[in-house]
Write a structure and sequence with these properties.
The complex is a heterodimer of chains A (764) and B (336).
Chain A: H1 17-21, E1 37-43, E2 49-55, H2 57-61, E3 65-70, H3 71-74, E4 78-79, E5 88-89, E6 95-96, E7 102-108, H4 111-120, E8 122-127, H5 134-138, E9 153-161, H6 164-170, E10 173-181, E11 193-198, E12 204-207, H7 213-224, E13 231-233, H8 250-262, E14 266-269, H9 272-277, E15 281-282, E16 284-293, E17 299-311, H10 317-331, E18 337-345, E19 351-352, H11 359-375, H12 380-387, H13 406-417, H14 419-422, E20 430-440, E21 451-457, E22 463-467, H15 476-488, E23 495-499, H16 516-543, E24 550-553, E25 556-559, E26 567-568, H17 569-578, E27 584-589, E28 611-622, E29 629-639, H18 646-663, E30 697-702, H19 718-736, H20 747-763
Parallel strand pairs in A: 1-14, 12-13, 15-19, 17-18, 22-23, 29-30
Antiparallel strand pairs in A: 1-7, 2-6, 2-8, 3-7, 4-5, 9-18, 10-16, 11-12, 11-14, 16-17, 20-28, 21-22, 21-27, 24-25, 25-26, 28-29
Chain B: E1 7-9, H1 14-24, E2 28-31, H2 37-42, E3 50-53, H3 58-61, E4 64-67, E5 70-74, H4 79-83, H5 86-91, H6 93-100, H7 105-111, H8 114-119, H9 131-134, H10 165-172, E6 176-181, E7 184-189, H11 190-193, E8 209-216, E9 222-229, E10 240-249, E11 252-261, E12 268-269, H12 284-298, H13 310-332
Parallel strand pairs in B: 1-3, 2-3
Antiparallel strand pairs in B: 4-5, 5-8, 6-7, 6-8, 9-10, 10-11, 11-12
The chains are: A alpha+beta (764), B alpha+beta (336).
The complex binds flavin-adenine dinucleotide (FAD).
Chain lengths: 764, 336
């Protein structure tokens, strides 16, 4: 951009904040439609069982029940993110694979009657042997969850670049360590909910919290065998996604099916427990990391084998199994690397993508580097800087890195935290740690990889922006409006946004894989520039000026430097209408990625057009008697390209630190009975942190000005969720003088590490 | 989750309330703040057709009174009102801390009551779940069945846990409950109020109401302390807790009581572990010795049913007891 921006980079209050604060915004569960029915789902009480029969007679006879569906009605229609992972029947016909899996559903005139009807459905099961952990599951002779996956291996990602063995042979120091973590969860504020409304024209409207309306619509159009333009996913306020709303669930299929069957609107609202158990959870991980470094701590080779508990079905399996590795290969320079990622089926809820992308992966990589630095007598900070990704590099699997300020992030976070005065100088049980990470801005998504936007004008000079980008709480709506307002010189209040509606908006990849700003923002930027050019062409004639000399600001068009002689935008729009040249701006953006890249068969080529990078420092005090960790401070730095709105970026940083660090690394984990049933599906027993648990935070925005991001922007916050977690591991291990290999860092795990160290010292 | 349909009564005064309860017996339950009862009702484990709200009794049954060396707390006193009572918080900082640690200020503190806290049901990771969650599990002892899911095959009784913070501290203070029924008033020591049986944790008759709790402050300087382990700063039941009440005369322990919370179906009073402290100066070594013994005594009682590693909780008994005792000594000596 040649001109100085007036709105981009400012702390403009989000366009959606006020109505949210006033409680006026409607979430899916708030939607009420005339004649609407209420649905409830009957779920499997067995981790693994054959469904012998389902008798719905008594339930159907209950007054108020309008429809019942079982797998028999849906012929076992299957869903999978990829053709080769289509392993989940949206309503199982004859077999259930985890406690909580959908078995039947009822639509009735009230939620109470629907719930009562569930109790009247008689299902006869034949329980089958179940597997609850990955080792059991992979063992020969274990019960097989899916016919075509021997030893229950759902996905195997195999990557090898460079000569790994040679790297180890040349290394000055080689370490191999194992890191583990159980499942974690998203705990979005809003539990999952769906409303489906069949319309007289044969179309079906749907509302649900989602991360990609166009993807939901496409999957449903396949499952329901309806044309895509008849399956309309509408915009609705969304209470969080965090990776847990990215794919398609039985809930929307069930609701849609019941609505079509009854020809009435149907609403299904999940309980908190259903949201935890029957949408997605983060994978449990078991990761072995072997790293070889030279005497200066430069990594020469790394070999990682990771086993992930995927639960009963594939979901985003190939992606989820790859992303932990990809984040790592983006962050650090690696001459030679080998990765074997195995996603293993078990009779547990389905694993999905979540924040840290493997606590026992990202955390392990950084902690091991710290340990090696210590063995070599080096400062971990220097070791990170020596290995840090640089702009112009190419990652091992072939992604060119067009912008990167990782080193600056590391340095600035360390400086703000007072690293030099603290590392190695703090009193016992007081420690400091550093985490570094990188995330993508999008994946190769084929025909759904690009975003398109449109802008039309009203005769008063106000504009309506149309974009497929969805806002699930992170501020995407504001991002779109802020970009359009900047380019068009309009007050944000003069811009109406239509977004995330598959009927009104064109294709968009969705708000996951951190692509919304990069693709959706760029598309709106292009549409706004197109509209502005059209406005300038009309105005140029009236002002007898050259198009290139015009500027749009304060709802006026004028020759640069002469705002007094300008024309109001509304007037230009009216002139354009009279002249038969109505202003409609269109724009699109398709990230430059290598579409031949495939998660399993070809993990090579440009993954994402650009990448964001971040570093966090944590300072902690550990109670040596209890193992309790007190978080004293977090310093969060990220290269987000450009902070379009620093206030929103800071919100993303703090949210990322709360989720990945304070929650994900210090408290949160799912616990299981031996059946296995999730023992803590609710907020009380699953320890999501509270405001009072948050430490002081310092946000450090680093701007590398990405050459192709909108105004230089990339992505904000996601890498902080990871680096904050990694920093806390480093800090706790630094505080107790011993590594902690098992996460989250609950007091029992920390105390065990303290004891292991003390035992070791006694023996030697 | 939805509240099941229940009848609702709101008697105007104590005698009307007692008469209603006597008439309905086990079919009815008292409703104070509802912060323990209503979540259980939603979970389908409150087993009551009628709730009898105590709201009109609040003027009669709330407030803190200090008189003749006794503190009496009305059963309907809210946690916040009790904890912030100047006299109570000055004399019994341990109780203040215990009450302040319950739930969160926004709900439990402002509507939850001291009586409700003392009468709150025991908790279980397998029982405090939705009916849908429990579907397919055989009914457990507490629901009239023959198994205990957290206890496993060898369990012959209910292994639910008392996680009431107030009960533990008041137990250490050797408080007494005042109980009313149509037959009149009686006083029950908390030691007797808690049965230790998960199935029926409280020794109250179906027609009885807890009207208050009171305790002797004693003549000697008293120090009280409450140490709670939890993973969050609020909205978190204890994973383990220790309450200590310790009286000093001329620098020597004249009386001491320690109780543990989140161990089993009742607060666990540790008598033998701390008995040797009486008549002695509370030196760090002696306190540590008592805490070590407490660990050994508590270990066989500890139930693995609160969502934290059992071995860690066993190891923590010594630590929480030591910390509670040390702070109680400090406070008895006039420290904060
Ligand atoms: C999210 C959450 C967190 C919580 N955290 C904690 C915690 O950290 N520590 C803790 O101790 N508690 C905790 N609680 C439980 C509860 O909030 C407290 O125990 C509170 O003090 C209960 O008081 P109440 O007046 O709301 O009781 P209610 O729910 O009204 O009653 C509890 C039980 O006692 C009976 N009852 C009530 N009053 C009387 C009476 N006067 N006589 C006889 N029986 C009576 C009722 O019938 C019911 O069975 C938590 C609850 C929630 C929902």
């Amino acid at each position: 951009m040649s001109k100085q921006e007036w709105l981009i980079g400012t702390r403009m209050p989000r366009v959606d904040s006020e109505p949210k604060v006033r409680g006026e915004v409607q979430f899916t569960a708030d939607i009420k439609l005339p004649r609407m029915l209420h649905a409830k789902v009957l779920r499997s009480p067995y981790p693994h069982a054959r469904i012998k029969s389902i008798d719905t007679t008594a339930a159907a006879a209950l007054p108020g029940v309008k429809a019942i569906m079982t797998g028999q009605d849906t012929a076992g229609v299957k869903w999978g993110v990829f053709r080769y992972t289509r392993d989940q029947q949206l309503l199982p016909v004859d077999r259930v694979r985890y406690v909580g899996e959908e078995v039947a559903a009822v639509a009735a005139v009230s939620p109470e009657i629907a719930a009562q009807a569930l109790e009247l459905i008689e299902v006869k099961y034949e329980p089958l042997p179940a597997v609850s952990d990955i080792w059991e599951s992979m063992a020969d002779g274990a019960p097989q969850l899916h016919d075509d996956h021997p030893n229950n291996i759902n996905v195997h990602v195999a990557i090898e670049v460079g000569d790994v063995e040679e790297g180890f042979a040349k290394a000055h120091l080689v370490r191999e360590d194992v890191f583990t973590a159980p499942e974690d969860s998203y705990f979005m504020t809003e539990p999952y909910a769906v409303v489906a409304n069949p319309r007289p024209d044969g179309s079906l409207e749907l509302w649900m919290p989602n991360a990609a309306p166009h993807q939901k619509a496409k999957a449903l159009s396949n499952a329901l065998v309806m044309p895509l333009n008849k399956v309309i996913v509408r915009k609705v306020a969304i209470g969080g996604a965090f990776g847990g709303r990215s794919d398609v669930f039985p809930a929307e299929f069930i609701t849609a099916f019941l609505a079509l069957k009854t020809r009435r609107p149907v609403k299904l609202v999940y309980t908190r427990e259903e949201n935890s158990v029957a949408t997605r959870q983060g994978h449990a991980l078991f990761t072995t990391i072997k790293t070889g470094v030279d005497a200066e701590g430069r990594v020469l080779a790394r070999d990682i084998t990771c086993y992930m508990d995927g639960g009963a079905y594939s979901s985003t399996g190939p992606i989820a199994t790859s992303v932990p590795f990809l984040c790592m290969e983006q962050t650090y320079r690696l001459p030679a690397v080998r990765y074997n990622g195995y996603r293993v089926y078990t009779n547990k809820p389905i694993g999905g993508m979540i924040r840290i992308h493997g606590r026992a992966f990202a955390g392990g990589v950084d902690l091991q580097l710290d340990m090696m630095a210590q063995e070599l007598g080096l400062d971990p900070l220097q070791v990170r800087l020596r290995n840090a990704r640089q702009p112009g590099d190419t990652t091992p699997t072939g992604s060119y890195v067009q912008s990167c300020a990782l080193s600056q992030c590391i340095q600035q976070a360390a400086e703000a935290a007072g690293w030099a005065d603290k590392y190695g100088k703090l009193p016992p049980y007081h420690g400091i740690g550093l985490g570094t990470n990188s995330v993508q801005t999008g994946f190769p998504l084929g025909i759904r990889g690009g975003s398109q936007a449109m802008i039309k004008f009203n005769e008063d000079g106000g504009a309506t922006v149309m974009s497929g980008v969805v806002d699930n709480g992170q501020g995407n709506d504001n991002m779109l409006v802020q970009i359009a307002a900047e380019v068009l010189g309009l007050d944000p209040g003069h811009i109406q946004l239509i977004s995330a509606d598959t009927e009104a908006t064109a294709n968009d990849p969705g708000a996951y894989s951190m692509i919304a700003t990069f693709a959706g923002g760029n598309a709106v930027l292009a549409a706004a520039e197109d509209a502005r050019r059209q406005i300038f062409e009309v105005a140029a004639e009236a002002l007898e000026a050259h198009v290139d000399d015009l500027v749009a600001q304060d709802s006026k068009v004028f020759v640069a430097g002469a705002p007094d002689k300008g024309l109001p935008v509304g007037k230009v729009i009216r002139m354009a209408l009279i002249q038969g040249r109505p202003v409609i701006g269109t724009g699109s953006f398709t990230p430059k990625v290598d579409h031949r890249r495939e998660w399993l068969s070809n993990p090579a080529g440009q993954l994402s057009e650009t990448f964001s990078f971040g570093a966090s420092v944590a300072e902690v005090r550990v109670d040596p008697e209890t193992g309790m960790v007190e978080l004293l401070g977090l310093w969060l730095a990220q290269d987000c390209g450009r902070a379009l709105n620093p206030m929103v970026v800071e919100g993303q940083f703090e949210g990322g630190a709360a989720m990945g660090g304070v929650g994900g690394m210090l408290r949160e984990e799912h616990r299981w009975s031996d059946t296995p049933r999730c023992l803590n599906p609710t907020f009380l027993e699953y320890k999501v942190p509270l405001a009072c648990d948050m430490p002081p935070i310092e946000n450090i925005i680093v701007e590398s000005m990405d050459p192709t991001g909108p105004f230089g922007a990339k992505e904000a916050g996601m890498s902080i969720a990871m680096s904050a977690a990694q920093a806390i591991i480093g800090a706790v291990s630094n505080a107790i003088g011993a590594p902690v290999y098992d996460y989250p860092l609950t007091p029992d795990r920390v105390l065990r590490a303290i004891r292991a160290k003390q035992d070791g010292e006694k023996q030697s | 989750m939805q509240l099941p349909p229940m009848d609702y009564l709101a008697p105007a005064d104590l005698s009307e309330a007692l008469a209603a309860k006597a008439r309905l017996g086990d079919e009815a339950v008292w409703l104070a703040g509802g912060t323990d009862l209503l979540p259980r009702a939603k979970q389908g484990i409150a087993a009551a057709r009628t709730v009898i709200s105590l709201k009109h009794l609040a003027p009669e049954l709330s407030g803190v009174r200090v008189q003749d060396g006794r503190i009496t707390i009305g059963a309907l006193t809210t946690l916040k009102a009790a904890g912030e009572h100047p006299e109570l918080s000055r004399r019994l900082p341990g109780l203040r801390d215990a009450l302040a640690s319950i739930g969160a200020e926004t709900l439990q503190q402002s509507v939850g009551t001291v009586g409700g806290n003392l009468c709150a049901d025991t908790r279980c990771l397998y029982l405090n779940q939705s009916p849908a969650w429990r579907a397919g599990l055989a009914p457990c002892f507490k629901l009239g069945g023959e198994v205990c899911h957290p206890g496993g095959a060898s369990a012959d009784r209910c292994r639910s846990v008392c996680q009431s913070d107030g009960a533990v501290m008041l137990m250490a203070l050797q408080a007494e409950a005042q109980v009313a029924s149509p037959q009149g008033q009686r006083t029950v020591a908390l030691d007797e109020l808690y049965t230790g049986k998960g199935e029926t944790p409280l020794a109250l008759q179906a027609d009885e109401l807890l009207t208050g709790v009171s305790l002797e402050l004693g003549d000697d300087p008293l120090g009280t302390a409450y140490h709670k382990l939890a993973l969050r700063g609020a909205l978190d039941y204890p994973l383990l807790s220790a309450a200590a009440a310790l009286w000093l005369r001329d620098g020597v322990v004249s009386r001491v009581r320690v109780a543990l919370g989140a161990v089993y179906a009742a607060p666990l009073v540790l008598i033998d572990a701390v008995a040797p402290l009486v008549g002695q100066e509370p030196t760090p070594e002696r306190l540590a010795q008592a805490a070590r013994k407490a660990g050994g005594h508590a270990e066989p009682f500890l139930v693995d049913n609160v969502g934290a590693d059992l071995q860690w909780r066993k190891d923590m008994v010594r630590v929480v007891v030591a910390r509670a005792l040390e702070q109680a000594v400090q406070r008895a000596k006039g420290g904060a």
